[in-house]
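Review form for a predicted model. The reviewer records the input and the model, then writes brief findings.
Reviewer: anonymous (R2)
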Amino acid sequence: MKATLAALIFALTGVANATTIISQNLQCGHSQIQERVGKLVEQVIRQNADIVALQEVCSDESLDVVALIKQRLKERGFGLKFFDRHFTHLGYDHFDEELAIFSRLEVAEAEKGNLPDSPLRRGYLSIHAGGIWYVNTHLTHEAEASAVRFQQMDFLARRYSSQAAMVFGDFNSGPESREALAFLAHRFQAYFPGPTWPAQVPRHAYDGFWGNFFNSRPPKIQRLEDIGSDHLGIALSF
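Model under review:
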């Protein structure tokens, strides 16, 4: 009920009742992965997050990174009620690259699948909690693949436009891009906190949120501290 009450209070009064989602591209590869996971978990606890959505979680026979994160969250007192993972493709021809989601909200249902037209197979992983769909995704990254990203965004927008929904993750393009029209056409609004690449000056904000149920003032969004990934994490509270 927490998410439902938060959405209702926010719509009627504009006063936030904190439900917090963190999204983080963890960066595929095991270099300093223990340190990255440790910093991620501390960030989750510090932000008092309800949902943690991850992209580029890469495991192999030597280390199951999703299981490691789950264990560390439990050790730090994150009241985990649901988690799921979705394999998308082989990262660097070696790692099982996955999406992952962890929730301390009660989850009524979950679904996952693949996005259309992906040169590398891309997917989505979603949970339905408190009457809201929370959808974690990672879109095609090639700069010339605007048309592909449009098809992927359009697929997600159509799938969830008839219900309260928030789609978030690494979109590989910002809200000003041509492909963003796919979300805008279905009355989703963009909530992007600004550049999310810590290692260089980006041209776009690649990580963000698209939501269709904020009827008053916008929710609070922020960039999070660098955990050693090539993306900064982002958080949204409402």
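Findings: The first strand starts at residue 20 and ends at 25.
Further findings: Helices lie at 2-13, 33-47, 65-75, 146-160, 181-184.
Recommendation: see findings above.
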